[in-house]
From TrEMBL:
Subcellular location per the Swiss-Prot or TrEMBL entry: Endoplasmic reticulum membrane; Nucleus
Highest rank taxon of the organism: Eukaryota
Name this polypeptide is given: Endoplasmic reticulum membrane sensor NFE2L1
Biological process, per Gene Ontology: cholesterol metabolic process
Molecular function GO labels: DNA-binding transcription factor activity, RNA polymerase II-specific; lipid binding; RNA polymerase II cis-regulatory region sequence-specific DNA binding
Organism listed in the record: Xenopus laevis (African clawed frog)
Length: 695
DNA sequence: TTGAGATGTCATGGT
DNA sequence: TTACCATGACATCTC
């Protein structure tokens, strides 16, 4: 509407003057109603870009060959098919259909609209009523006729091509900042120089009038009106009615597919969440500690007696050293000093370190358990300790690159997420990166995969996803993620009803949308119409102005061999060749930029998911670490009590207990426990007492 | 009027 | 060398 106002307020008067100077009588008042499209659209005639041709209507009803190559629904169609395949492969989802709702709508309007069917299809023998569907009127001559304009093709001296050219030149002047005065002056100059005379008379000049494109600096060769192309017309433009029929052949509006897509997304995401939960639950499994081989005490039975070893576990976990502090026992209380000395005295594994350290902890002399030396390094399985230490290293000192890569592999295997993955299963449009590289090859072979399209964003998809976000609390990144998609229009060159859709860089909007989607759609429609009219339409206008005899889609998407062959078929000027190459370069780069940005979003989204996954895993491992530490502490206490119990029950040849100050039990590498005199540091090999004892 | 977001385009480097 | 792609940077536009 803004563009309409702009044209009405600024350009319409000038254009009226221009047309009046050329002898064309236009009833511009007929364009004033608010529901009419901008004037330039009316004059330029419809392209599939602006016409509500409802190409999306075939989506979901066929194999997609009815989808317009640049329709916003094409990517969604592919996405829907792929997701539907995934979901069906899971054999657990049933995709509900809203077909019944559509039928009810049809039933209500059945009496009033005799020719209309459910909205999922339109009879081919009944011409569609574009105006009644709320879409923009046909911008070709047909549209002019419907709007009551008197400048109909064939009824005026000016052909549609001339009107296009006039409009293009006028708009280029506006783009260059030429004011109204300048434009009027130029009009007068044109009138004086009779520049338009050949056009009006339809006489073909010997030399086509050359004009310099102020925007591109290129020379525009203008051809007479009688020859609409001025060049070998290898692609004759069809008549309006034929084109319209062809374009409107696949008219099956399909909101159901979009709704299905939302549901499929929800199910797919719930599945992925379930997988993530499984990963977490597996990671949270407690780490069971075991002693293997079992603690073994080798005590010399010849020199020691063992009067009844109590295995009362309650006593084992009593954090005191009552037996040692008994009054009748000659064993004095041990101090930390003794413990240190003992540990430093014996080079091999010393249980006294554990014993006395823990004892001191229990008596309150030593506070932190982390300061004590690892007393179980000889008792616990080394593999277990390695595992614990690795976890601590990972948790407290960060992941090393190797660990990160391992974790990455695990994450990839678990959730399918990858930092560098361009084929993330999360991606609604999957393998666009590889597809972009295969764009030309696919177009050359005229075969394509459903996910390999390269092209433009799907605005209706975005709208649907936004709607689904609001309704289903979708994660917003998914709409952002799905905002850009890829399509390759060249892959649909063989489709007959798309053959004439060559200048479409815009997106179709679904013609029959729910009422609640209308504001969003109108907003996006206005935005895209204005934006794409300037951006994507620029090259189209240039191509038309330069009389490029083939479509921009071909220019952009043809393989280089076919492209060169196409160029060789025509006698093109240098300016035309330059423009064609620019269009090709810009078009390819445009798609590349879209793919690049999509990859960025994919990467960001994947990283976001990965961070969440790592956070969950970190929490799980922290819990596991705490459990391990508690278990380790319990084992320390148990070993301590076992030591005390065994040591207190050892007797020498005289039946007296050994003094803890003079003897200590040591755990050797072969699993035996020996009793060693503390002052016999150089006599470690001597075993005064040895007692085999299975625990 | 300003800022954010989207998109197109150009330049550059890699393949 | 040429064509193509990826991407950073910038411009433009809309909201």
């Amino acid at each position: 509407m803004l563009s309409l106002k702009k044209y009405l307020t600024e350009g319409l008067i000038q254009f009226t003057i221009l047309l009046s100077l050329m002898g064309v009588r236009l009833d511009l008042d007929s364009y004033l109603p608010s529901h009419l499209p901008p004037l330039h659209e009316i004059i330029l005639g419809p392209t599939s870009a602006y016409t509500q041709t409802q190409f999306h209507s075939l989506r979901g009803t066929s194999d997609g060959y009815g989808v317009h190559p640049k329709s916003v629904d094409l990517d969604q169609f592919f996405t829907s098919r792929r997701l539907l395949g995934c979901v069906r492969a899971l054999d657990r989802l049933t995709v509900p259909s809203t077909e019944v709702d559509a039928w009810l709508v049809h039933r209500e309007t059945e009496g009033s609209v005799s020719s209309a069917q459910t909205g999922s299809s339109r009879p081919s023998d009944s011409p569609p009523d574009l105006n009644s569907s709320g879409s923009e009127p046909n911008r070709d001559g047909q549209g002019l006729e419907e709007l009551g304009a008197t400048a109909q093709p064939g009824s005026s001296d000016l052909s549609k091509e001339d009107i296009d050219l006039i409009d293009i030149l006028w708009r280029q002047d506006i783009d260059l900042g030429v004011g109204r005065e300048d434009f009027e002056n130029r009009q007068q100059q044109n009138e004086n120089e009779d520049v338009w005379e050949p056009l009006r008379d339809g006489a073909e000049p010997l030399e086509p009038a050359l004009q310099v494109d102020g925007e591109t600096g290129e020379s525009i060769r203008r051809f007479p009106a009688s020859n609409t192309s001025g060049l070998p017309d290898a692609e004759p433009r069809p008549e309006v009615s034929d084109r319209t029929d062809l374009l409107l052949s696949p008219l099956i509006p399909d909101m159901r597919a979009s709704l299905d897509l939302e549901e499929q997304w929800q199910d797919l995401m719930s599945l992925m969440d379930m997988q993530a939960m499984e990963v977490n639950s597996s990671a949270e499994d407690p780490l069971y500690l075991s002693l293997d081989p079992p603690l073994q005490l080798d005590v010399n039975l010849d020199q020691a007696s063992l009067p009844g070893c109590s295995h009362n576990t309650s006593s084992l976990f009593t954090p005191t050293l009552e037996p040692f502090s008994a009054s009748e026992s000659p064993v004095p209380q041990l101090s930390s000093h003794n413990s240190t000395d003992l540990n430093s005295t014996f080079g091999f594994t010393n249980l006294t370190g554990l014993l006395f350290q823990s004892q001191l902890n229990n008596t309150g002399n030593i506070t932190s358990p982390t300061t004590m030396p690892d007393p179980l390094c000889g008792l616990l399985d080394e593999a277990l300790l390695d595992e614990i230490s690795l976890m601590e290293l990972a948790l407290e000192e960060g992941f090393s690159q190797v660990q990160t890569s391992q974790l990455q592999e695990e994450l990839d295997s678990d959730s399918g997420l990858s930092l560098d993955s361009h084929h993330s299963p999360l991606s609604p449009s999957g393998s666009e990166s590889s597809s972009s590289s295969s764009c030309s090859s696919s177009s050359s072979s005229s075969s394509f995969s459903e996910e390999g399209a390269v092209g433009y964003s799907s605005d209706s998809e975005m709208i649907e996803l936004e709607e689904s976000e609001e309704a289903n609390d979708y994660q917003p990144q998914y709409s952002k993620f799905c905002r850009m998609s890829s399509q390759d229009p060249s892959r649909f060159r063989h489709l007959p009803f798309l053959e004439h859709v060559g200048h479409n860089h815009t997106y179709n909007m679904a013609p029959e949308e729910p009422e609640e989607m209308q504001p969003i759609m109108e907003r996006n429609s206005r935005r895209q119409a204005g934006f794409l009219d300037r951006q994507a339409g620029r090259d189209e206008q240039r191509a038309r102005a330069m009389k490029i005899p083939f479509s921009n889609d071909k220019i952009i998407n043809l393989p280089v061999e076919e492209f060169n062959d196409l160029l060789a078929k025509y006698q093109l000027s240098e300016a035309q060749l330059c423009l064609i190459r620019d269009i090709r370069r810009r078009g390819k780069n445009k798609m590349a930029a879209q793919n690049c940005r999509k990859r960025k979003l994919d990467t960001i989204l994947n990283l976001e998911q990965e961070v969440k996954h790592l956070n969950r895993e970190r929490s799980s491992q922290l819990r596991e670490k705490g459990e391990n530490l508690r278990s380790l502490q319990r084992m320390k206490q148990e070993v301590e009590h076992l030591y005390q119990e065994v040591f207190s029950q050892l007797r020498d040849q005289n039946g007296r207990p050994y003094s803890p100050q003079q003897y200590a039990l040591h755990y050797t590498s072969n699993g035996s426990v020996i009793l060693t005199p503390r002052n016999a540091g150089g006599q470690q090999g001597r075993r005064p007492e040895r007692k085999d004892r299975r625990k």
